[in-house]
Amino acid sequence: MSFDLRHLEGFVAVAEELHFGRAAERLHLAQPALSQQILRLEASLGVDLLIRERRRTRLSDAGKAFLVEARRTLAHAAQARAVAVRAGRGELGSLRVGYVSTTSSAPFLAALAAFQRTHPDVQVELRELPLGSLAGPLRDDVVDVAFIARLGPLDVCLDEGAVLCELSAERFVAAVSADHPLAARPAVEVGELAEEAFVLLAPDICQEWDDAVHGICATGGFTPRVSHYVRELSTQLIIVAAGLAVALVPASARAMRADGVAFVPLEGAGPSITSAVLWRAGNESPVLREFVEGLGVGSAAAHASTAGQDSRG
């Protein structure tokens, strides 16, 4: 014969009250039912936990030892129950976040910061991904969600079952050293950068960004003279701060608060950089559900997913 948590709860109540009537009332049980419950527990253990005397009930030595472990077991069970409930609500667990090096930092950081404020017990794991491999990590359950920033159509990032939703759009700005003659200007014409050396992201990191920078410079009537190719936006800003080159970067790069760098808007429209978030429709993670709901993009995301799948025929 085995016993369960109800038997332990009944025994603890009797052990603390040392009175079957009061213990039964505390548990909202009939006294005979509680008495039978304790008898079954003792039979299961093969020892007497209680010494039943005519006028009182007291614990046996076995009962005293069992009480310590019963309380501990009930406490662990209560903790396990609470953890399960919180995990089911998406309040515990982990969120694996993929991102690419071209991801605009402002919407990316804002979304993560807001989620961490409301879900402090969720562990957020960041994983950098090559731009061309977003569909695979989502499909293969390597990441739960991915942030991207693109200049071209977003639906090229969609794989079967993927969901995509736009977060924001922004323009390129000129990044120059703080002591550069253009640093204090409210805006600059692209052509004013024609004689400058440029630091660019390597084309193999993101060819479309390299094409966009060359396209912007072409509107100013020149081809950029590239002195450095780097693999990170942060490295671009270090070189700019040193006065070794200028760069064209997303406006959200201001959020990186790079010392010694001034960000100057460009005159004219220019290409728009769209930041978006992707996830797999079949991912049933409660944490992912909470994250997506926090973005406030549920219905829009479903529409984006349908549109992306339709575009593939």
Automatic annotation (TrEMBL):
Family as reported in the entry's similarity comment: Belongs to the LysR transcriptional regulatory family.
CDD domains to which the protein is assigned, alphabetical: PBP2_LTTR_aromatics_like (cd08414)
Pfam family for this entry, one: LysR_substrate
Keyword Transcription regulation: yes
Gene3D superfamilies (UniProt xref): Periplasmic binding protein-like II (3.40.190.10), Winged helix-like DNA-binding domain superfamily/Winged helix DNA-binding domain (1.10.10.10)
Designated name of the protein: DNA-binding transcriptional regulator, LysR family
Keyword Heme: no
Keywords, in A-Z order: DNA-binding, Transcription, Transcription regulation
Family matches, as PANTHER family: HCA OPERON TRANSCRIPTIONAL ACTIVATOR HCAR, TRANSCRIPTIONAL DUAL REGULATOR HCAR-RELATED
HTH lysR-type domain: residues covered: 3-60
Gene Ontology CC: one annotated term: protein-DNA complex
Molecular function as annotated in GO: DNA binding; DNA-binding transcription factor activity
